[in-house]
């Protein structure tokens, strides 16, 4: 539709409903644009219902006009061929949608303007009604259209539709699908020291070379966060000529193994103290210039 209107168009689904054919006909206004189509090898016929004001605005745009919305009315003889072209485009798009599951050959059968002339299905036949909203912001056009499919027409596709739905549901619940993407997203890791409060006069009086003493004590770990969420803690240090942080606490490490039971009469080894600068496990992350290196730190 956007191609016909020579402007960007957006389509979004509004609702789905299941009615009998007779109930559906009673919801239609007296004048509406109804496009009947077939899609062999699917049995029966399909119906595309379009808001009359929207279809006439698109027809006017197609004929070179401004494409303004107006109250519903019967189209003129000049507008009828334009409505047929709009219907043919809509039927082709419907064929593309079905093509994901089955190769079909969509064909437009007729364009009607009165619901009383339709005989697409028996009065008690159950139909699936998919209602969409079509908007063309550049032309200030907006209106609804519906795709009406008898369940008997969908019956050859039900098994494929259920299989496709199950596959999509499995992908939705499988965390590995998003995990592969999330692991490649770059994040900014920030280290934060304990702040200090100063008066505005003191801040304004600072000059180059002044030293600000923080409330962060020597040996106190700094917190490291991503997006404001604290993830790690570590101690300040150096790696070569650059500042670095040796990670001492993080939630990603495996729990330490339980100590092996001592044999009766065995002598416990002398405690040598913790591994310097890297916490109780002897492993640490060295964070430097947003590069993470996992290394074994030896005393």
Helix share bin: 10-25%
CATH architecture designation of the largest domain: 3-Layer(aba) Sandwich
CATH topology title of the largest domain: Chemotaxis protein chec
| C-alpha termini separation | 71 Å
Strand order of the largest sheet: 1-5-6-3-2-4
Give the overall shape, derived from the CA principal axes: elongated
Strand content: 25-35%
- What quaternary form is this? single chain
Give the averaged pLDDT, no decimals.
77
Number of helices: 8
Structural class of the helix and strand makeup?
alpha+beta
CATH first level of the largest domain: Alpha Beta
Number of strands: 12
SSE order in H/E notation? Answer: HEHEEHHEEEHHHEHEEEEE
Essential attributes:
six-stranded antiparallel sheet; Chemotaxis protein chec; 299 residues; 12 strands; 2 domains; alpha+beta; disordered C terminus
Q: If you had to describe this structure to a student in words, what would you say it looks like?
A:
The protein has two domains: 2-157, Chemotaxis protein chec; 189-199 and 211-255 and 272-296, no CATH class. It is 25% helix and 30% strand. It has eight helices and twelve strands. The strands form two sheets. Strands 1-5-6-3-2-4 form a six-stranded antiparallel beta sheet. Helix 3 (52-62) crosses helix 4. The chain is elongated and about 95 Å long. The termini are far apart.
């Amino acid at each position: 539709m956007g191609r016909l209107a020579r402007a960007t168009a957006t389509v979004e689904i509004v609702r789905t409903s299941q009615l009998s054919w007779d109930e559906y006909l009673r919801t239609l206004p007296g004048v509406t644009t109804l496009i009947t189509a077939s899609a062999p090898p699917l049995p029966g016929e399909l119906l595309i219902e379009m808001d009359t004001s929207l279809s006439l605005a698109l027809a006017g745009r197609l004929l070179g006009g401004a494409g303004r919305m107006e109250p519903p009315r019967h189209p003129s003889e000049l507008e009828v061929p334009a409505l047929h072209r709009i219907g043919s485009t809509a039927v082709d798009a419907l064929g593309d949608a079905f093509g994901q599951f089955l190769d079909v050959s969509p064909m437009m059968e007729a364009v009607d303007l009165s619901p009383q002339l339709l005989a697409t299905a028996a009065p008690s036949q159950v139909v699936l009604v998919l209602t969409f909203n079509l908007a063309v912001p550049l032309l200030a056009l907006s209106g609804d259209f519906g795709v009406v499919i008898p369940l008997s027409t969908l019956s050859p596709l039900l098994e494929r539709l259920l299989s496709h739905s199950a596959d999509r549901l499995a992908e939705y619940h499988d965390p590995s699908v998003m995990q592969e993407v999330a692991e490649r997203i770059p994040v900014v890791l920030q280290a934060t020291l304990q702040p200090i409060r100063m008066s505005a006069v003191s801040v304004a009086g600072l000059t180059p070379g002044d030293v600000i003493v923080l409330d962060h004590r020597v040996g106190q770990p700094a917190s490291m966060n991503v997006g404001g969420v604290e993830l790690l803690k570590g101690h300040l240090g150096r790696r070569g000529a650059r500042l670095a942080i040796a990670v001492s606490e993080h939630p990603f490490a495996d729990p330490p193994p339980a100590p092996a039971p001592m044999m009766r009469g065995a002598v416990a080894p002398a405690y040598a103290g913790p591994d310097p600068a890297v916490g109780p496990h002897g492993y640490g992350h060295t964070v430097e210039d947003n590069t993470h290196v996992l290394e074994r730190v030896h005393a």
